[in-house]
């Protein structure tokens, strides 16, 4: 997650986890850490992140997803991907273990696509016994040692250790003792808003706008689209589509005001396949077209 890291008597305590990839010698595509050095006591919000993460969690706490949660009360291996928001709430003072971060380019896309625990809607948590914990600990310790070394092919070796972690988990049964949130509607709505906001601001005309519909967001949150729509309407009084449309219009106006991109470039960056679709959408929302709006800023 992209939140502040809090740790007792730790000079690294205020480091953002999203800054960690560049903190060591190995590569901006991969890094590995001890949890006690960058201890997330809790992180309840979802922020922009573009990395995959594998964690060995030693310590008690609760992992929260959109409408469900799971209690971690024994050592566990957690797999998280850039697309599924979650939060961690520690319930014990002692927290240790390890985590490694890597970007999609570190492992080939077709390989990641075959890993079930990284898939949206997959089961990413595995409880482990003492023997498995020792083996997984040894893999993380080897990563920590390797990342500081100068072996010419250490990136390949680190990649192999990640593969070993994945295969070790695939031999296990994933945890399935999730519970339903009592305030599921509020959590789902909060995560929807944060997923929406993470796509902005748009800083390039080649930007790829991924989440455009209520169904896109529901898929990311692993909930049914009707459930998402009910939750958002219940909490905010507005529909999911209204939130998306309003945010796109706000960004469209900012791009028309502050950039010299042409109308077609703005349309494509906002996810419209054709400029005409963007013109129709803009006029429906504002009673004017993009060209006239931009001209009004000059007059």
Strand-pairing-aware structural class:
alpha+beta
Determine the mean pLDDT. Answer: 86
Q: What global shape is seen?
A: globular
Q: pLDDT under 50 segments (min length 5)?
A: 1-18, 22-26, 44-48
Spatial strand arrangement across the major sheet: 1-8-3-6-9
Task: Name some characteristics of this structure.
299 residues; alpha+beta; 5-stranded antiparallel sheet; 10 strands
Provide a descriptive summary of the structure in words.
With 299 residues, the chain is of the alpha+beta class. 40% of the residues lie in helices and 15% in strands. It contains 10 helices and 10 strands. The chain has helices spanning 109-112, 130-147, 154-170, 184-197, 214-221, 225-236, 240-258, 263-269, 275-286, 290-298, and strands at residues 30-34, 42-43, 52-58, 61-64, 68-72, 76-80, 87-90, 96-102, 125-127, 179-180. The strands form 2 sheets. A 5-stranded antiparallel β-sheet has the order 1-8-3-6-9, with helices on one face. The chain has a 5-stranded antiparallel β-sheet with strand order 2-7-4-5-10, with no helix packed on it. Helix 4 crosses helix 6 and helix 8 packs across helix 9. The longest helix is centred in the C-terminal third of the chain and has 19 residues, at 240-258. The radius of gyration is 22 Å and the shape is globular.
